[in-house]
Amino acid sequence: MGHRVLMLGAGYAGLTAARRLAALLRRTDTEITLINDRPDFVERLRLHQVAAGQDLPSHDLADLLSGTSVRLRVARVSAVDAEARTVVADGTAFAYDTLVYALGSAAAPMPGAGDVWNAASPAAAMRLRDRLARAGAGERVLVAGGGLTGIELATEIAESRPDLPVTLATGGELGDWLAPAAQRHLRRRLHHLGIRTREGVRIERFTPDGAVTGDGTLLAADLPIAATGFRANPIAAAAGLDAAPSGQVAVDAAMRSLSHPDVYVIGDAAWANGPGGRPLRMSCSSGMPTAWIAAGDLAARLTDRRPSRLRVRYFHQAISLGRSDAVVQFVTADDRPKRAVLTGPAAVRYKEALCRTGVWAVAHDLPARPKPAKRPTTSGLPAR
């Protein structure tokens, strides 16, 4: 029996790693199985569009994996036993020699969040879409959370449903991580759309009638929406992998778990140091490079090669402001804002190109076509 690689999750990181690893290990005795809870690839970057009622193209995983040796199993992972090297999905146990964990993140838990809406997953975005379709003119929408998700949701809803008054509540200053020019454009756009902003508001809990702030004030809404951040899937921490308070698994520079080196963790699930020693942020911009790093390192260990020296760096943050506007904040390698920004129609085209490129990239072997692999050995396998 060849080396068994089990991969969990087919988001931007997981699918990229699966295709990359299959290309690097072609013509070797390696068995690669990818488990995902649905048969299609989710463009998470566009879930705010889904929530606002837009129909998007579907991307079948079988098509995206066509031509590779990756075996796809559609099942929901319920547990990982890192000591026994097994994974349970839909009641079936899968054994592995090396695990690549890419189960990503979900909406961060907060008191009362179960009583309100969000767009953190395809199912949640569809539920919000249905609720918005039923909303009558004048119903009050509250988006709690002023990060990228909250801004994109608020502007998308306000643009598509101008008959609904929208309020965006944020714990800090609106867009305080952006350069001044980007902040000014963001404020102008929200004003143009009629979005009311509440800044410096710390949300303590949600209710079916809105959100309660730290001083006990109720921000009343007919349709409260939580966009208060993300937390890593808890399965990894439950498996005994060393994790940060965020639930992300602590990894080394090769994306290997510090406590279980036979487990690679990529994407939102990984707690990794990025440029300048700052933790990588949960994003597609982090997920795909971590997939390249993990796949390259694992392939090198299985074939007695030297791993390629890839590093994660950032270039931009692109924020949709509805379908007719956007802002692109260019950043340093360690994700600090530069003075350079792009706004308006040019930024819309830039963001759209990024979304399309993301889908194209997961369907191709990037960043480069590998040379044929040597015969696999065991001398470089992850040690326990």
TrEMBL record:
Keyword terms of this UniProt record: FAD, Flavoprotein, Oxidoreductase
GO molecular function ontology, one term from the record: NAD(P)H dehydrogenase (quinone) activity
Domain FAD/NAD(P)-binding: 4-276
Pfam families for this protein: Pyr_redox_2 (PF07992)
Cofactor field: FAD
Keyword Flavoprotein: yes
GO BP terms in the entry: aerobic electron transport chain
Family indicated by similarity: Belongs to the NADH dehydrogenase family.
Protein name: Oxidoreductase
Organism: Glycomyces terrestris
